[in-house]
Every structure is written in structure tokens, then in C-alpha cells.
Amino acid sequence: MFKKLDKLIIKAFIGPFVATFFIVLMVLVMQFFWLYIDDFVGKGLSAGIILEFIGYQSASLVPLALPLAVLLSSIMTFGNLGESYELVAIKSAGISLLRFMQPLFIVTLFICGIAFSFANYLIPVANLKSKTLLNDIVYAKPAFDLKEGIFYDKLPGFAIKVGKKGENDSTISDIIIYEKTSTLQDNFIIADHGIMRVSADKRFLEFNLRNGWRYQERGNSSTAQTEFIRLGFKEYTKQFDLSALQFQRTDDSVYKNNHRMLSMRQLSRAIDSIKKDNAKFTQRVKREVLYSCEFLPYLDSNWKAPKKLAVKNIQQLIPDSIKLSVRQKISGTIESMRSVNEMVSSEYKEQQRYLRLHKIEWHRKISLSLACLVLFLIGAPLGSIIRKGGLGSPLIFSIIFFMVFYFLGTTGEKFAKEGKWQPIAGMWLSTVVLVPIGIFLIEKARKDSQLFNKEVYFRLWRKGRSFLNLKRRQVAEDDGL
């Protein structure tokens, strides 16, 4: 009997989980894609490059989509069973809610394993690929787009202006081509009309110009002895190299040492290396900051001055003839120590920040994977309490709890990056807050609590209002007596 129930609950869970997972993943990808839509438009990118970027970004967002999908599907599953009274029948048969949750608990653990595998093995590679590809797209120049009456200066060394373009965009008239390669900046071409075409491999732009002039000035710009050349033509062909406008791929190794591109083993090695480097700052301070202090050899000497040399003010020991030079030397030494100390301090703070980022990423891979289990502990009892299926109520509750989870995670990560909290505290804040809420909801679900039944609160409101009205009548009667 239990095996059939296990199959029943798993089948009821798988369908909503798969559907909600792909919906959530699509929403997250589109949200990220929308932030960079301006960098994609007008670059002449092929569909393959865009699909490649979406694929990499989808893989990196899987651990974030899985917890929300688990939360929403678990609420829908138990809500549907509660709405159809199947959950009531199962409880009346003597099967506890915890026993009924057991098969989905195991499935959720399996999902946590998938999320961890993505976070530890696939996401570093996906982040590396997507980061490199995104930078290539952002820094790529716009595709060739020649507009009427406007100088186009995206081609290196040239500025092109066309007065009018034909309907087929190949016939052009009133052409001005300004050459910026010359140091004199005086070379340009003027033509009445012509034909513009792009080569088959899209590497060259060819202008076949008619009835025009070419003006060129030769000579050294530092002297007035220059030679001006004017060349008239009936037909003139000019080619432009479009390779600068083509999308260029860079090597993935540029960002391979970023903390978001490392697995847990690589992060652990990097953390150990950073700690060893930070331990050397004490010796560096003594070597670079305190090197100019002449009293440095006596710091641990337990030296005591004779009583006859004891004075109230150290300036009494300095002769008047050298006080000025001593003050200047002290001021220079202090200023040198201050500048060196600021430089070393800034490097130390940067190393500490670098260490925190690696620790945050290490904890993220575990905390975000276990978030599936944490949100399941909230979604399963919540669905059995509200007893509503479909997408209405489950979607509202899912958004609320996921916003709490995301807000707590973002806040904790922010404080951890700033050094106000330890990385372990910041990255596990959402888990520490949501686990007690899940335990509370499980306890309420086991006792068939009416926590989200509006009729209960309506009856309480009517009783409270009746009690207040009764008190008012008693006070009025007492005042009348």
C-alpha cells in the first residue's frame, strides 16, 4: 500500500516540477537577457551566438531555478491532494504527513545533488564561457548601418556620408568619403552617385563611384611645403575592410582565475594560498613601514634610562642648534611611513576582500543546493494547509517565500562582501531563518491547523466585535445608573 502511495505522490510531483522548472528558468534567463538587450541590438550577431549565450546562461541559472520550482511544485502537489480530499483519506488511513512526505523528501535530496553537481562542475565552465562571450558581445562594434545625411565613422580611418539611398539600399548618391589616415586630415572623395555592395564573405564593402573628384594633400605637416592633388574620375572603385566590425572571439583563459569560475576544490586551494599571502603582511609591515625607525632594534630590549637622564619632555634632550633639522627629519620620516602604510593597508584590505569572495563562493555552492530541501520543507506543509491546487494561491505563496529567501540571501551576501559578517553567516542566513519556519509549518500541518483558513479569522473577528459591543453596552448601562 505504501509503495503505491509513494508512486502516487511522486507522479503528482514530477509533472508540476518539470513544468514550473522550465517556466522559472525561462523567466530568469529573459530577465538577465533583458538587462543586456541594448548590447545585443545592432551588432549583427548570428542566431548561433545568441543561442550559445542563452545556453550558457541557462546552465548557470539552474541552481537558482531549482529551489523555486521545488517550492511551487510541492505547494501545488499537496494543495491538489488536499483540494481533492485525497490527503484527508490518506491521513484517515493512519498514514502520517511525515510518512507521506518521505518519498518527495528523497526526490528533493536527489534534486539537491543535481543542483550541487551543476554548481560545482558545470556552472564554473558555463560562467567562464558566458562571461567571455558577453564581454565579446558588449565590446563588439555595431554592424554596418549607413544612414542618409549622417557621417558613419565606425570604420577605422574613414568617415562616410551618403546624401540619399535607393530603395534597394545599394544605389547611393551625393557621397563624401573622408580619409582619416593622413596626418594632414585633408584627403577626401566626392562623387555624384554610385553603387554600394558587400562581398559574399561580408569581409569587404565596395563602393563603385561615378562622376566625382578625389582630393589629396601630400607633404610634411610640420612645413608649409605641401602638394595638393585633385583627381577627377568617371568611375572609381573603393573598398573598405569590414573585419573590424565582425564579432571577435577571445580566449576563455582570460577569466579562468575568477572566483565564479572555480570548483570547490579549486576554491579551497585558492583560499589556502590567499591565507598564506595574508600571513606575510606582518613581516612586510616591519620591513617596509618600520624600516626607517632607528629605535626598531630596541623594541623588545627592556632598556631603562638612568634616573639622572629622566626628563619631563623629550625636547629638553635636543640641543637648540639641531631642533629644526630634527623636526624636518621626523616629519619626512612620518610622511614616508604614512604613505607606505596606506599602500600596504590598501593591499591588505584588497586581499581580505579577495579572500571573502572565495569563501562566499565556496559556501554558495552548498547553501544554494540545500535551498531545494529547505523550500520543500516549507512548500509541502504549506500546500497541505491551504489545500488549494492550480497556479493561483500556490504561485502567490511561492513568490512570497522565494522573495524572503532571495532577500535574505542577497542581504547576507552583501554584508559578507563588505566584511561586516563572516561569509558562513551571510551565505547561510536564509537557511537559518527559513528552516524554523518550515518546522513550524510541518507541525501545523500535522495537527490539521486552520492557519490559512479565512473563515477562522472571520469568526474570530465576529467574536471580537461582539465582545467589544457587549463591553460598550455594559459601560453605557453603568453610566446610565
Automatic annotation (TrEMBL):
InterPro entries per the UniProt record, alphabetical: LptG/LptF_permease
One of the protein's GO biological processes: lipopolysaccharide transport
UniProt keyword terms in alphabetical order: Cell membrane, Membrane, Transmembrane, Transmembrane helix
Subcellular location: Cell membrane
Pfam annotation, one family: LptF_LptG
Record's protein name: LptF/LptG family permease
One Gene Ontology cellular component: ATP-binding cassette (ABC) transporter complex
